[in-house]
């Protein structure tokens, strides 16, 4: 049995993780297992930018990824970047095992507004589904309401939905099917004869 694993840095609040886990279970139909919190990712901090390298965090996640984890999603409040962009909401290995999302810029407080919990949870769910979608082989979708549509600002996050469009759902189902198909190995085939 394989599970989608969820981990987080210590400051992430429980209600956010619970909301994410419920929606991921609903979306991917896989059981969710929560892992112990991550150590502070000081190794990924870039002082000049006052941000954390999302690719360095992915690298570390790969090393910590349990064998039974089909995917591993990390959730953090740290503001993330990749070298060519001023920030990212998250990063994932395409067709790989690991993904990370940041709540930092999903919070209304970041933009000078009062805290809005339901909005934070709605945004977090969209970004988690999006990044895990990449790990299941989905690429950016041109359908603006699809969870796989690319968001480079918070208006685009709010404009998209937390579900995949029909095309992305079809691709996801195909990829899940491939993953579930047992690998025929010559020894077990021999035994069947
Ligand atoms: Zn993306
Ligand atoms: Zn789509």
Blueprint (SSEs and pairs):
Blueprint: E1 3-8, H1 14-28, E2 32-34, E3 45-46, E4 51-53, H2 54-64, E5 69-76, E6 80-82, E7 85-88, E8 90-92, E9 98-102, H3 117-135, H4 154-159, H5 166-180, H6 186-192
Parallel strand pairs: 1-2, 1-5, 4-6, 5-9
Antiparallel strand pairs: 3-4, 6-7, 8-9
Residues 130, 134, 140, 150 line the site of one zinc ion.
How does this structure look, described?
The protein has 193 residues and is α/β, with parallel strands linked by helices. It has a single domain (3-182), classed as Collagenase (Catalytic Domain) (3-Layer(aba) Sandwich), CATH 3.40.390. Helices cover 38% and strands 19% of the residues. It contains 6 helices and 9 strands. The strands form 2 sheets. Strands 2-1-5-9-8 form a 5-stranded mixed beta sheet, sandwiched between helices. Strands 3-4-6-7 form a 4-stranded mixed beta sheet. Helix 1 (14-28) crosses helix 3. The longest helix has 19 residues, at 117-135. Bound molecules: zinc ion (2 copies). One zinc ion (ZN) binds at residues 141, 143, 146, 148, 164-165, 167-168.
Low-pLDDT segments, ≥5 res: none
Give the strand line-up of the largest sheet.
2-1-5-9-8
**Secondary structure tally, helices:** 6
Give helix % range.
25-40%
**Shape, principal axes of CA atoms:** globular
- What is the gyration radius calculated from CA atoms? 17 Å
Any idea of the CATH topology? Answer: Collagenase (Catalytic Domain)
Question: What sequence of helices (H) and strands (E) makes up the elements?
Answer: EHEEEHEEEEEHHHH
Mean pLDDT: 93
The assigned structural class equals alpha/beta
DSSP summary, beta strand count: 9
């Amino acid at each position: 049995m394989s599970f989608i694993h969820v981990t987080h840095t210590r400051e992430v609040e429980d209600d956010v993780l619970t909301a994410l886990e419920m929606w991921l279970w609903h979306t991917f139909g896989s059981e969710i297992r929560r892992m112990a919190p991550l150590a502070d990712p000081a190794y990924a901090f870039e002082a000049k930018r006052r941000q954390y390298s999302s690719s360095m965090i992915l690298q570390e996640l790969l090393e910590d990824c349990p064998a039974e984890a089909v995917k591993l999603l990390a959730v953090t409040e740290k503001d993330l970047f990749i070298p060519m962009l001023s920030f990212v909401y998250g990063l994932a290995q395409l067709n790989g095992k690991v993904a990370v999302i940041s709540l930092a810029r999903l919070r209304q407080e970041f933009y000078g507004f009062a805290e809005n919990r339901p909005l934070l949870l709605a945004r977090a769910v969209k970004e988690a589904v999006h990044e895990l979608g990449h790990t299941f082989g989905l690429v950016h979708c041109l359908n603006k309401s699809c969870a796989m549509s690319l968001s480079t600002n918070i208006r685009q996050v709010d404009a998209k939905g937390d579900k995949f469009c029909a095309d992305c759902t079809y691709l996801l189902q195909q990829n899940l099917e491939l993953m579930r198909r047992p690998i025929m190995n010559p020894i077990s085939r021999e035994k069947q004869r």
